[in-house]
Each structure stands twice: as C-alpha cells, then as structure tokens.
Amino acid sequence: MVKTAGSRAMTQIGFGQDFLQVNPESDKYKSVGALLLDPSCSGSGIVGRDSMPELHLPDSPANTGKGPAAKSNNRKRKHDQVEQPEKVIIDDDGNETVLASEKDLEARLDALSGFQLTLLQHAFRFPSARKITYSTCSIHMQENERVVMRALESKIAKERNWRILRRTDQVSGMREWPVRGLPSACGDQMDVAEACIRSYKDDGQGVMGFFVAAFVRVGAQEDADAADDDGPYMRDENGAIIRDVLGMPVLKSTGEPVEFTARDENEKKEEEEEEEEESEDEESDDDSDDDDTSEGPSHLAPGSSHQDNVEDKEEEEWQGFGD
User: Fold this and answer.
1) pLDDT tens digit string along 238-289?
2) Is 18 annotated as ligand-binding?
3) With 90 as the cut, is the pLDDT of residue 79 above it?
4) Active site (catalytic) residues
5) Are residues 252 and 157 in the same domain?
6) What are the E-state strand segments in the chain?
7) Residue 319 domain-assigned?
8) Which of 163, 198, 232, 257 has the highest count of CB atoms within 10 angstroms of its CB?
9) Nearest C-alpha neighbor of 122 from the set 237, 200, 32
10) Number of domains observed in the structure of the chain
C-alpha cells in the first residue's frame, strides 16, 4: 500500500504494538499531528463472507438394516424439528463469535464499542494532534454514531477542544457522498449525523458496509506562521470566546483562563516616587527659566560692559537734530 501511494521514501513503518500502551507525551509521539483509527469491529459490513449458500446435511439413520424395523423410521422430519443453525459473526480480524440470541449480539457490540471508545479517547491525548479519523467496517450504530457521540461528550474531548469535522468543511468527495449518519443514533443532532459517512452493501454505491467520521481540534493552533484573526483567546464552534466559571477568557497559548495578578506594593511605591521626582525636576526647571527672564539690563551694575554696549548702540542709532 505504501508503494502504491508513492510514499515509500517518506513513510516509516513501525513495529506492531499496543496503541493503548503508547505514551502520547514521549519524544517519539509528542509531535504527531494526525491519527487514522481503524479499530477492531464486528465486521458486519464486509461483503463476501455470507455469499456461500448454507448447507444442511441429513443425519445418518439410526438403523441401517433392512426389513420392517428399518421402515418404522419416518422418512421425513417435520420442519419444526430441524435444528436451527446458530448465528456466527466474524470480525474484521477473522475471529468467529457464536451468537445464540440477540442478547449475545448486544453484549458483543457493547464490548466492541467500549474498546473503540477507549482507543478514540487515547488518540485525543496526543498533544500536537489536530486531526483524527475514526472508521469501521460495521453497519451497527453501536460501533459507529454512538461511539462518536460518547467521544464528543467525554471529558478529554472537551478539555482538548475536539469536535466533529462538519460536512461543510470536508473535502469534496466526502462532502458530496450521499449516504450520511443516522440522526436517531446521534440524539437527533443533525450536524453530527451529516458529518458522519456511511455505506451499505446494497445501497447502490458499489461498496461494502462502512462508516467513517473525522474529528478536528480547534482553538489551540500553535503554529506561529498560521494566520489567526481570533485573538489570543479560545473560541467555540460558534465563534464565541470560551470562558471559565468565573467568566475569564481562556488563553490559546496555555489553555488556562486569564489571571489578574495584583501589582507588587514595592513596585507601585517606586513608580510613585519616580513620578514625584520627575514633577519636582520640571518645577525647578520652570523656576530657573522665570529667573532668567526677570533679570534685564536695568539690574546690571553701573559701568558694566553690557550696559556700555547698550548705550553705544543707542548713540549710534540716534539720527536726530541733524544739520
């Protein structure tokens, strides 16, 4: 598959391991930005496993001898005496599970959906993750829409601001797919149902039973080069600022509400003293300017050079009483 996709040069295939044992905060995984989840499921949408006809072989007769004793056995068995075959489901890993009743099926689906939800919530914990896809080859809503709804309502999803990728935000191929999720399984939340994609074996689309939904993380963009017109605060899907119980806005950078810290009293006192010193300096400068302006030639001592220069200038400028 990697070769077909043409990504062999840039794709590293890791060893198989338990996803739930992976530490999202480790150096190896803390920068993971996207995850594709395709967990084990009931495989109820897989085509081909039920294509073979069901064969019922006759039981061997109890008495194979000839004569009247052999004729005493009924040649036909009544329809209600035919043993009904038990229902067997084969998951996507090829494991068979015998189901004797509908209760067994419900129990099996509950176990699978609980495991699927645990995987999805673990994926929400990757600190740099921004996109997650969740898919199954199941037609049962317990493994599909209900897992999505439970994941969206989980504490970790709300803390990390995960939401469903709306149909309007999907790429054209996903957005235009005609078969969507079941509204009844989404609590009649049409936006969630429309965001989910389904397919059925006989829905005319030419594919098997399948389900996929995408999640995106909002309000925590840490890329410094990314354009951000919403300011420093987190916002919900409607564009409103997210606030804590006290009404304080939550910062994108820290994920914590804004805190107002009282100014240190010493710093405040120092600032006041500096302001007083500046005002005193300005007053002293104004006083010195006034003193310079008030002193003129009339205050100079008689015989001073400045007074003589002024008198000489006045004599040179006098032009009266000429011949």
Assistant:
1) 778 888 888 888 887 777 888 765 545 555 666 677 777 777 766 666 666 5
2) yes
3) no
4) 137
5) no
6) 34-37, 87-90, 96-99, 131-136, 162-164, 197-199, 210-217
7) no
8) 198
9) 32
10) 2
